[in-house]
Amino acid sequence: MINLLQADAAAAAQQPGMGGFWVMMLLMIVVMYFFMWRPESKRRKEMAKFREGLKKGDKIITAGGIYGVVKEVKPNEPTILMEVDGNVTLRVDKNMVVADNSQLQK
């Protein structure tokens, strides 16, 4: 009978507490914030600033891989007019502009 009580006491002493679980969860959230969410948020803000700063004559690349030059930008409008080649122009959503071609060629 004493051996059973001693076995129960030993098993209870070996079980980990919930404090370690919460510390690990908090640590995982902090690591995810600094390595995933924060850099992504910063990248999104920089891209939004770049797209709002587009002006006539900027060389750009769209998400579809189309290279062109900005021909017309209207304020408070979600699209731009870009010249692709000669007299070929395309109306493109600003959110599809992903890079400044003039900076990539340097």
Tell me the name of the CATH class of the largest domain. Answer: Mainly Beta
Helical content band: 40-55%
CATH topology call of the largest domain: SH3 type barrels
Tally of domains? 2
SSE topology string: HHEEEEEH
How many H/I helical runs? 3
- DSSP strand content: 25-35%
Q: What characterizes the major β-sheet?
A: 5 strands, antiparallel
Give the total of beta strands: 5
Mean pLDDT level: 84
Q: Which residues form runs of ≥5 with pLDDT under 50? A: none
- The chain-level structural class is alpha+beta
Query: Which shape, going by the Cα principal axes?
Result: rod-shaped
Measured on Cα atoms, how large is the radius of gyration? Answer: 28 Å
Query: What CATH architecture of the largest domain would you give?
Result: Roll
Strand order of the largest sheet: 4-3-2-1-5
Distance between the termini: 83 Å
What's the layout of helices and strands?
Layout (H helix, E strand, L loop, with lengths): L1 H13 L3 H35 L6 E4 L4 E7 L5 E7 L2 E6 L3 E4 H4 L2
Antiparallel strand pairs: 1-2, 1-5, 2-3, 3-4
Question: Could you explain how this protein is built, in words?
Answer:
The longest helix is centred in the N-terminal third of the chain and has 35 residues, at 18-52. This protein has 2 domains: 17-52; 55-104, SH3 type barrels (Roll), CATH 2.30.30. With 106 residues, the chain is an alpha+beta fold. Strand 3 (79-85) and strand 4 (88-93) form a beta hairpin. The relative contact order is 0.11. The chain contains 3 helices and 5 strands. The mean pLDDT is 84. It is rod-shaped and about 70 Å long. It has helices spanning 2-14, 18-52, 101-104; strands at 59-62, 67-73, 79-85, 88-93, 97-100. A 5-stranded antiparallel β-sheet has the order 4-3-2-1-5.
